[in-house]
Amino acid sequence: MLKRNLGDNFSQNLKIRSNCFVTTVDSKFLIACGFWDNSFRVFSTESAKIVQIIFGHYGVVTCLSRSECNITSDCYIVSGSADCTVLLWHWNARTQTIVGEGEVPTPRATLTGHEQPVSSVVISAELGLVVSGSYNGPVLVHTTFGDLLRSLDPPNGFNSPENIAMSREGVIVVNYEKGNVASFTINGKRLRHESHNDNLQCLLLSRDGEYLMTGGDKGIVEVWRTFNLALLYAFPACDSSIRSLALSHDQKFLLAGLALGSIVVFHIDFNRWHHEFQQRY
After folding, report:
1. By CB atoms within 10 Å of each CB, which of 136, 153, 209, 267 scores lowest?
2. How many domains does one find in the chain?
3. What gap in Å lies between CA 101 and CA 152, rounded to an integer?
């Protein structure tokens, strides 16, 4: 098979992680960040050709996220940067580009409040919220209009948020460095926190937000209950550390991207842990 390459012009100062890449709803385009010229770029997944280059940040773009889509498949794209800001963009599914007020793509909102480079970001158009974390800094909750609502107070010893996930019900799960995980409500109340014995690289929530999947340096994919962070299941260990996780559209298959460059597919049945299916009446 012909290998398609996104190029070698990524910044040497940035560790490329799974949150540097998002796809559009139809998976026809891949949006990638981390380029030395402070841009992020839209690629065609069919040809790997650059469709659009977006400028707006004054530092290297460090992370990306996409919202749910509306009926027309329009959605928000949000970008975090080493310039300590988060920008909100509009993806137009009809023109298949990021659009602005005029000819040039311009951000819908600029979100401020961080004093260190932004490390992770997540957006929900349904809830109208953007949650972002910065290196050795806080996790901030903004509205999609750019208003800062609150900062999520981490437990003692939980420093530097690395990955963030948010469910439709508004439960926010934050993975801090050294495998520390905490869950919060969107109102800022801390639900639970756990210290894991693995350095986690990625986390993912099921569509209903009930279950959390994590992968890390030990090569083990684990399933947790989101609300109480109870560990439910661990899949067999993989050959190398896990760098990314994704669920198939029908929520039956869990895909893990390994540091070796291979992909492992697990069959996952969320019903086996659901209380309604466990108690046979």
Report:
1. 267
2. 1
3. 33
Q: Which amino acid is at 76?
A: Y
Contact 161, 131 (CB under 8 A): no
In a domain, 50, yes or no: yes
Q: CA 145, CA 167: separation in Å to the nearest integer?
A: 20
Cα 68 to Cα 25: distance, rounded to the nearest angstrom: 8
Report how far residue 188's alpha carbon sits from residue 144's, in angstroms, rounded to the nearest whole number.
Answer: 17
pTM score: 0.91
Confidence of residue 280 (pLDDT cuts 50, 70, 90): very low
CB-neighbour burial class of residue 255 (10 A; exposed 0-12, middle 13-18, buried 19+): middle
Contacts of 247 (CB under 8 A, 6+ apart): 204, 206, 207, 213, 253, 254, 255, 268
Per-residue pLDDT reduced to its tens digit, 60-92: 999 999 998 877 788 999 999 999 999 999 999
